[in-house]
Amino acid sequence: MNDAPAAPLTVLANQAAYAEAVQLAVDAAAAYYRDGTSGLDDDAYDRLVRGIETYEQAHPEQVLPHSPTGKVAGGAVEGDVPHTVPMLSLDNVFDAAGLERWAAGLERRLGRSVTAWSVEPKFDGLAISARYQHGRLTQLITRGDGTAGEDVSRAIGTIVGLPEKLTSPVTIEIRGEVMMTTAQFEAACEKRTAHDGTTFANPRSAAAGTLRAKDRPYVCELTFFGYGALPLPPTDDSELAVRLRSLPHSQIMDVAAGLGVATAAGTPVAGIVAASVEKIQARVEQIAAARADLPFGIDGVVIKADLADDQEQAGFSSRAPRWAIAYKLPPVEKITKLVGVEWNVGRTGIIAPRAILEPVEIDGSVVTYATLHNAADIARRGLMLGDSVTVYKAGDIIPRIEAPVVHLRTGDEQPISVPQACPHCGDGIDASQERWRCVRGRTCRALASIVYAAGRDQLDIETLAASRIQQLLDAGFIADFADLFFLKREQVLSLERMGEASTGKLLAAIETARTRPLSRVFCALGVRGTGRSMSRRIARHFGSMAAILAADAEAIQAVEGMGTEKAKLMIEELAELRPLIDKLIAAGVNMTEPGASATAAAGTSTDGADDTTAAAAGLPLAGMSVVATGAMSGPLAELSRNQVNELIERAGGKASGSVSAKTALLVAGEKAGSKRTKAEDLGVRIVTCEEFAEMVAAFL
Ligand SMILES: NC(=O)c1ccc[n+]([C@@H]2O[C@H](COP(=O)([O-])OP(=O)(O)OC[C@H]3O[C@@H](n4cnc5c(N)ncnc54)[C@H](O)[C@@H]3O)[C@@H](O)[C@H]2O)c1
Ligand SMILES: [Zn+2]
C-alpha cells in the first residue's frame, strides 16, 4: 500500500470545466460538513480537489475566489463562536516517498534534524474543541471555517471519552475528534430507521449529523478521542498553561489522559514517538494493518514534530500547521449501486442473502459482492434495489454494506424480495431465527455436503464422483456421508453402470477413508467457519473426537486462531452434527489424530499454546513456520497444497500461507512468484521440493 500513488485526479480541460468542478466541490463540502449528506465519497471529492489544484497551478489568473483549495473545510462552513487559536486542517502525503520529502522539507526549514516525531492515528470523524472551566465541561464548538465554529454544547453528556468533569479542577481546552464506533453506528441507524425509516450513510456522517442535530426525539451516543490540549485562555499563565506550552506533544497527551479524557492510548493504535522516518514508516504500516479490526474508523496516520520548540519555529500556513502531516491510507469506503440480491443455501441449509454491487475498486481490489447477513439485516438497513450504498472493505475482511445513501435516491428504487421457499430445493424456510434455514437442514444440500466430505482434502474417497453420489441418494442407500460406510456390496452393484471391478474399487476406497486421521474426518463434517487448516489445528490440539466433544467454549478457544464467536458457533454446530458423528463412530471411522499430544487428547489441557510445540520437539521442522508456494514437483508432485501443509505439520512445523519475518522456511515449487521474491528480500531460507522431501522423508 505504501508505494501506491494517490488516486488519479479529475482532469479539467478548460475554464468552464474548472468552474463547474469548483461549484461541485463547494456544494459537496457544504453538504458534507452540514450533515454528512454529500453525494461524493471522500475519494471522489479528493480527486476533484486535486484536479482543481492542478488547474489552478497552470492557470493562476483564473482562480475563483470561492475555490475550496487552501481553505479549512474547503471554505464551506462558517461559525459564530471564535476559536481561541485557529483550528486548522492538515496537509496530506500518500506514500513513503511523500513522507520523506515532507520531513526533509521541515528539517530544512528548521535548519536542524527533528529527533522526535509523534505518530498517531488519524481519527475519521469531525474536529471539536471542548472548553473546560475549573474541571467542568462548559462548551463544545465545531471547527467551522477554522477561525470560528458552531456551538454544539447540547451534545455534552452524550459523548463517551469526553467527561463532563475532569479528574482535576483545571481550566483547559481539549481538542479532538468526535466519531461513532461501529456499535454506536449500528444503534444510531436502528433508532433512526425506527423513527423515520431512513438511515445514516456511514459512521462519519452519522456523527456529523448527530452532533449538529437540534430537537431530535432520540439520542445517539458518540465517541471522542483527544489529540491536543491548550491553555484557556491562550494568554493564561498558570502552571498548567506554562506546561502545555512547553511540553512535547506526546506528553501533553499524557496530561489529557490523566485528566480523564480519552486519547489513542489504550487502543491498538496508540500514539508513539519515533526517532526517524524509517520508524515512522514502520508504525504507519502497523496502524494500517490494525485498521480493519478497529471498532472505529481511521483514515490515516498523523505525524507531528513532537517538541514544542520545533512546532513553534515551523509555524502555520493559512490552512494547516507546517509541523504536522496526514499520511492518508487508501480509502476503505466507496459509494456504489446495489444492483441485486441473491439468496444462497449453504452446506448446512442456511439461506443467506448476498448483495450484488456495481463493481467498485476498494483498498486495492474490485468489489462485486458484499455480505448481507440475513433478511432482518436488509430490513434494519432499509436497503432497496437500485440504492446507492456505502460499501466498506479493509484488508482481507469481507466487504459489507454500511447503509443506503438515502439522499441519493431517485424514486426508482424497488423493494428487495425475500424468497418464500428454499431456493435450492423448493421446500419450506424455517424463519424462526435471524439466520434462515431450509426446513430440510443439511439434507437440502446433501449432495453438495457429501461431495465435499468425499473430496481430496477431506476423506479423499477416490472414484466417488458426484454423479455416483446422486445415484446413491436417489436409490435411498445414503442420506449423509456416514451412510457410505454402511453400504453393502449388493447395493453398489445394483446401481446402473456399476460392475464388479468398479464396485470393488469404490468399496476399497471407502475402507481406506475409514482410517483417515481425525483432522480430515473433522474437516469432512463441514463445521461452519472451520476449513482445512483450522480442522488440522483442532485435531492436533485435542487429539480425539471424544476430547473435542467434551470441550467447552473456553477449551475450544485455546486452539490458535479460534475467537469467541467461532468457538460458540463450533459448539452449536457440533451439537447439531452429533447424530452424524455418532453414526461415524458406530461405523468404526478413525477418531484420533496420530502424533497429537496426550494431555490435550485427554481433554485436561487448558493451555493450548504450548502443547503442539511440546509435541513437536525433536521433529525436523519443530517450531518452524513453513510456507509452500508454486507448483509442487518431484517427490511432492502428487500432493495437494493441503497435503503438503499436513506434511509440514506432521513434521512438527506450522504451515502458513504468507511469508513474513516469522517465516523460517520457504518450499519453492515451480513458478514460485511473489512469495519467493519476498522470502529472498527477508533472507528466509528457501529449499526446492526435492530438498524439502529429504528433510521430512520420514513423514512423507
Ligand atoms: N465526500 C465529500 O463530499 C467531502 C467533502 C469535503 C471534505 N471531504 C473529506 O474531508 C477530508 C478533508 O477534510 P479536513 O479538512 O477536515 O481534513 P482532514 O480530515 O483530512 O484532516 C484534518 C483533520 O484531521 C482530524 N484529525 C484526526 N486525527 C487527528 C490527529 N491525531 N491529530 C490532528 N488532527 C487529527 C482533525 O479533525 C483535523 O481537523 C478529506 O478526506 C475529504 O475527502 C469529503
Ligand atoms: Zn432446501
Automatic annotation (TrEMBL):
InterPro entries: BRCT_dom, BRCT_dom_sf, DisA/LigA_HHH, DNA_ligase, DNA_ligase_AS, DNAligase_adenylation, DNAligase_N, NA-bd_OB-fold
Pfam families: BRCT, DNA_ligase_aden, HHH_2, OB_DNA_ligase
Domain of life according to the entry: Bacteria
GO BP annotation list: DNA repair; DNA replication
SUPFAM superfamilies in alphabetical order: BRCT domain (SSF52113), DNA ligase/mRNA capping enzyme, catalytic domain (SSF56091), Nucleic acid-binding proteins (SSF50249), RuvA domain 2-like (SSF47781)
Residues at the catalytic site: 122 (n6-amp-lysine intermediate)
Recorded GO MF terms: DNA ligase (NAD+) activity; metal ion binding
Cofactor dependency: Mg(2+); Mn(2+)
Keywords: DNA damage, DNA repair, DNA replication, Ligase, Magnesium, Manganese, Metal-binding, NAD, Zinc
Alphabetized Gene3D superfamilies for the sequence: 5' to 3' exonuclease, C-terminal subdomain (1.10.150.20), BRCT domain (3.40.50.10190), DNA ligase/mRNA capping enzyme (3.30.470.30), Helix hairpin bin (1.10.287.610), Nucleic acid-binding proteins (2.40.50.140)
Ligase keyword on record: yes
Family, as annotated: Belongs to the NAD-dependent DNA ligase family. LigA subfamily.
Name of protein: DNA ligase
Species for this entry: Planobispora rosea
